[in-house]
Amino acid sequence: MSANSAFNDEKGGSSSVGEPEYGHDPASGGIFSSDYKRHDDLKEMLDSNKDSLKLEAMKRIVAMIARGKNTSDLFPAVVKNVACKNIEVKKLVYVYLVRYAEEQQDLALLSISTFQRGLKDPNQLIRASALRVLSSIRVTIIVPIMMLAIKEAASDMSPYVRKTAAHAIPKLYSLDPEQKDQLIEVIEKLLADKTTLVAGSVVMAFEEVCPERIDLIHKNYRKLCNLLIDVEEWGQVVIINMLTRYARTQFLNPNMNESLLEEGSDKTFYGSDEDEEEEEEEEEEKDKKAEAPAMAKRKPYVMDPDHRLLLRNTKPLLQSRNAAVVMAVAQLYFHLAPKAEVGVIAKALVRLLRSHSEVQYVVLQNVATMSIKRRGMFEPYLKSFYIRSTDPTQIKVLKLEVLTNLANETNISTILREFQTYIKSMDKDFVAATIQAIGRCATNIGEVRDTCLNGLVQLLSNRDELVVAESVVVIKKLLQMQPEKHSDIIKHMAKLTDNIQVPMARASILWLIGEYCEHVPKIAPDVLRKMAKSFTNEEDIVKLQIINLAAKLYLTNSKQTKLLTQYVLNLAKYDQNYDIRDRARFIRQLIVPTEKSGALSKYAKKLFLALKPAPVLESPFKDRDHFQLGSLSHLLNAKAGGYQELPDWPEAAPDPSVRNVEVKDSVPEWTKCSSREKRKEKKVEKPFYSDSEGESGPTESADSESDSASSSESGSGIEESGSGSESEESEEGSESEEEEEEEKEKDKKKKKKELKKPVQESESEQSSEEERKHERKSKQRKSESESESDEEEESESESSQSESEDSESEAEVKKKKKAAESKPSSKPVKKDNKKEKKEMSLLDLDDFEPAPSPQATPVNAFLSNSLATDLEGLSLSDAVLSPATISPSSALKSYEMLHRITGEGLSVEYCFSRQPFSPDANMVAVQMQFTNNATSDTKNLHMEDVKLQSGMRVKEFPEIELLPAGEMVTAVMGIDFCDSTQAANFQLCTHTRKFFVSIQPPVGELMRPIFLTENEFKKEQGQLMGMNEITEKLTLDVKCRNEHSIVQRVTTAANLSRVPCGSDKECRFAGRTVTSSSLVLVTVATKEEGAAKLTINCEKMVIGTMLVKDILLALTQ
Amino acid sequence: MIHSLFLINASGDIFLEKHWKSVVSRSVCDYFFEAQERATEPENVPPVIPTPHHYLISVLRHRIYFVAVIQSEVPPLFVIEFLHRVVDTFQDYFGVCTEAAIKDNVVVVYELLEEMLDNGFPLATESNILKELIKPPTILRTMVNTITGSTNVGEQLPTGQLSVVPWRRTGVKYTNNEAYFDVVEEIDAIIDKSGSTITAEIQGVIDACVKLTGMPDLTLSFMNPRLLDDVSFHPCVRFKRWEAERILSFIPPDGNFRLLSYHVSSQNLVAIPVYIKHNITFREGSSQGRFDLTLGPKQTMGKAVESVLVSSQLPRGVLNANLNPTQGTYTFDPVTKAGRTPAEVGSRSAGSDAPPARLAHTAREVERLKVNRLDMYGEKYKPFKGIKYMTKAGKFQRDDLVCITGVSTLTYETVTLEPSSIITFTSAGPN
Asked: Any CB–CB contact under 8 A between B37 and chain A?
């Protein structure tokens, strides 16, 4: 390989720009060996049309890059090959391009179009790789292109492309921080992604771009917790670290039991139990007030279920093979878990000690910090920290640190025995550290102080001078604590001055003798005498201590030492070091009384012989835990760039309901439930268990599908969309299936899911019954639009029942049924809207007259199919809809916006009424139905704080001033979704509370029907070919093989109208998107045996692809 | 995250650099060289070095420093673990991870690094995905490539990256379907002067070599799973199933992988199958000393101890040693006084990473992990299954030998240690 040969030729590796590259190897580069011009041979090879030559050249170039050589002059030649067919050449060109594009911005632009083309490729992997390279090119001019590409990729069908988009976000951000706001939007969108592939990458982007926007996490918190175990390991680390920070801002300190202030705590306590019934809360509140003084002191801490969820879901990751993941979980537990639970991490951390020494190094640093705070945690593993002679010094020192931290009265003797062995080590640094460790043990544990001191004194006779010196220093510190008792040790040390040469040790001894000269009155002057003799040969620090000693002795024992002191001071006067000269001069003035001596000399004794505080031997790891453990900053004990402080626990927990996603998904557990609910739960318990344990999610949904399919003839639009969403849900569920299984075993958490499941179950039960009825009837029925009025009545009540769905209690349903029956109004009549609303009539239909306000045009959710069709048939004034082509308008599926338990009695459902929204034609009308299930009235219902994607607009519904208990009210709002399925988020406010809610439209609701003739349709279709056409083959469901049911299902899935068509093998539908009025044309061509072809022509490709999915689902199930 | 990567060899040359963001000058490595000079031993270079603008995080493997340049806060273990993964991948691809191997395959190395990190964040680290993207070089393929000009880069796209089991590639086919599991246990022990065990722990792994067609779903159950109280798994193992039933259920990666590793801590009683005694004397007035080492199997052991290897580091001051083993062969590795350059570390001992006193043996009396059964679901054929048990010595050392550690190494090797045989060997030399 010439790459290698070229490499070997220049093994010297000096990175000079002008150095020529020779093709010396006769085997491969033979033809170019005569070419001595710089890189010319490579240029030639790149220009040739043989892939093998190009590849050879690229390999050599990459080898040069690897060695850090400058090959930028080849840029034009290389960039030409960006579109090369050979995949390896292409890849190497990418490598080159990314490396040099920053330097050669203009030329790099030549390659952009290739990537732009790649972004449109049908193959997801090519799209992803194009985006990857495009975003890696650090050229500022293409920022807008990158932004566009990222935005598009963020809504790509393929999760892999979306992952790449997430990766591209920090790249763009570092290139142009101005784009932050737009990037945050993309991040927000990707955070909502439900695939594990994307989760890690997008959180990484979040951490780099906007770690301060913790509010973006709320909605995704639970999802992230649940996905965590399936995310790839690197993503896990990032997510866990981020969630640690998040949890610190959102939950209460689990270890703080009683420090809550009374006022704040009251709220908090309830806040975390949002699930409690309101009445009970009131009751309890009364109780509380009675016992207030007692309770204020000891408020039981209740862990937020979300906090618990995080701890539970991260725990299994302690068993990861990846040390970084284990460490991340360990720090999470250390920072977030209640004291009693932190212990679980010790075992895993000890296991990591068997890993590579670099891993050990980091783990031990963290263990050292932890072992100060939570000593008990690591005590059982004491022996695992014993030191092996093969450990690198830094590991040894860290292990010593941990051992010292773990030392207590019971284990100190074993630890000291270990230390004794360590002192024999050859590793000097390690021995010194050991002696210091002994000193620390001695200061911390009073009982062993004497033993340690004796041991250290023994070390003073060690052969090794370093050991002795270190011991002296430590002994000095120890003696300072209780000098009286140890005059013999001081004497012993005084003798050492003859032998010890290490300056620090000598200085320490002299200081000791000077400080405690009263305890050794006879020896001290003698030492000074010896020192005076050797003064000139001492090191500087020793000299300073000699002067010190002289001064102190002079003050206490001037008779014996006066002359010696004079002598020493005189010597020092002419010392070479000016510090020493200064000191001598200063001390002379201070202690020797002369006529001129100032006021200070009176205080000389106080100055020199003041009581010095004993030094505190502290671990260098003390208080290091204010840095997040496992972080670089913690390791360095200094804030690293980009480090996010670990916030302190909040005084009072912020509103936990912000994490409620779509309410049906995340109904929080309740502590008590009313008897009514209990009954309901019991009723459905059996099927729930047998279902979900025996079968997996998909089969379950398949069952319900067949149910709904059996009723295909009748207007079962509700069911279809209902089961559709259910199967989606259960698929989601199967992702976290194992999770759920575990949860089932755990009683405590079970309720949460139970609430969710039974609700679904009851829904399908209830509705499947109806469907059977429906089926029977539908046989008599010829077509929906021709249905008789008496049937209307029934279907009204039925649909009302099915519409009411889960959250309505049976009693309520019955009530409504009665209401419906009692008002057999078979004719559509204009009614006084305001009155009717209170009575919940099923026939509020005012859309025939121009409505002055949105409130005036509520479309009742309980409108039945047939009725609606009839009414539409009558609306001759409406120019758009002609009776001949009108689609059988399907019943409206309503979605839950606020569950009554989350809403504390207030429940809200919404549906897309498919009526034009009169105040603004570009808006989709959303009809909301508020039900007050609570016992008290709700006032001032309005919306606030609308959070929207850019371009989206909302027309709010007028404030509802009063919603009496047990009553229902409907209101209509308009939302301009900008032809995207982005959710509109806002707060729903009552006079007491605020709820975060969101409305997300299915794609089929983003359009309105239009009338086209067959010819017009064909013409328009002809203009929307190519990229704008999506074709899908499918097999129709058994129950859906006639024209009628196809029409039925398609119009249920999307708000389209039927286009007349000559052939009975084809059904056509047309509509326009609400905002941009782009045409949406749908064709379903049927063939033999249920085979069919679905074609969608739409300018908006995203809408098209999503619509294909929805219709496909509708037709095949 | 990871900004750049530099590979530095033992003599301090940067022989490969790769940047994932804008280029960082290689002068940043000067800080590393400073730290390297300060360190007495090559492994004493601190893994994390702060510099004014960057942080250097390094690992030392196979006498190559892998130095990652970091610009802002990132968990250091994240980087370290990744660097080790890089080394493992190189080893997987080239058989060895030496400077020569990397230089020979510099293009493949570059392609690998390109795939493993995107903008400094790990992208594809599973060896199965990487092998789909870039085929490992073999002699045959190198030859074919030179002749035909075809490439190492996989033509097909890495579908594994998209699947739910990213560790397994699709469309695996074998004529012989086999699954082998090696249960290997290593004992780490420290024994004090009197011969009693201070601490001993068992480090066990199950290494697997699975060559099965299609998408097999395996379950492995144990006779005594209670032994496994501290385990770490390959990501393929289903945690929940383990928690609930103590059964390992997994879709295996293709080829060799480490299924799980476990740790039996020092709290459990671990018996050591051999005893070891030593004695050091110094002759007064002379620079000579005598070092006796006696090694024998414990009487309670029924089985023979095989492949015993003792290696002992002698102090730097030892110039020469005369060894008289009673059994087996020995080698003595003198190292010159100037021999602290990493290049010569290679001649230090027979095994490059041999700890001072190291024993290997194959028997153990305490209860060990036993596999109960292995079942396969999801595929129709019947695979051949094999399980092998082994016990090895891990970091096994005598506590008090630390007083004579140094550079020269004494290696002693014998095939079998019979229950009755005792070996002693004596060395003499100036101390």
From this structure: no
